[in-house]
Input
Amino acid sequence: MPDTAHPGRSVRTPLVTVILPAKDAGEFIGTTLETLTRQFDDPAALKLVAIDDGSRDDTGVLMRRYAERFPHAEVLRNPSPRGLASARNQGLAHVEGDAFCFLDGDDWMQPQRLEVLSARLRELGCDFLRTDHVTVAGGRRALVRAPHPWREQVSSPREAILPENESTMVDYPYAWAGIFHRRILDRGLAAFPSGLFTAEDRPWIWRLHLEAESFAVVDAPALLYRRGVATSLTQARDRRQLDFARAMNEVIDIVERDPEAERFLAKAVWTALALSSHHLVRARRMNPALRTQMRAGIRDMLGRLPDAEAEAVLERFDGPRRRVLARILRQAGRAS
Output
């Protein structure tokens, strides 16, 4: 159900479309929206596409209030939550201009971030840009660097996937940490797996790095990411977390279909095993029924990993991760 601000007004095409989905983010989204008013000197350079994903607080009210401040703005409302992946996909249908980006409802940007990024995207002529970000937890801030050794240089996204046992750009899946040329959208690489309520960015980042042609990591004014927010999916221990196994199955499917599958499978398997270890530890704090479902999903996902790659990765894992995985690997028919 769209609300379009400023119907009938004729203004120039925006430079950047910002896709902002949120659910029950009323405590923070005012800050998020306020920072969007400070991205360009000309407010017509930015289009806001805000998606109120079934909020029960004043998130939608704040979205509509701020939409009045932009010549280009649309507010979409879902009567019931569809999840972050589906809400982002809704926003993609409303992109205008040559560039777009994502923003979550509890994060914010330093002034002129999008002006800098849109200019660098034009100058470098690549498909997408990635940036560092700053985590905020209480009064503490910490810089998290994008795990790519070359800055301000156009590179092949494929060449930023390996090595398998080190953090690389497919381990930096944050959709909001960058900007994208609209040809990514036109080529069908921008959409997220529909219906996933968590880990939706894992198959998304793999497809992006396997199928896009060029990218760069650049410096820009910061995006600030709140950690420890109670409504964040990273904090949730409910059934939304069950989508992790489905997301990793999609990653394996994407890699197995690639012409260079043999080259990249070990990395996908390493990621699946490492994240499974993490989720198994978190599952200990779930209620028993959900914990059982989580373990079953992970067991089935691990059971379909290619044998040679799985065995090679397990041999290189440290003791703690092997111990966490031992029981479920036996259940999946694998030695640990």
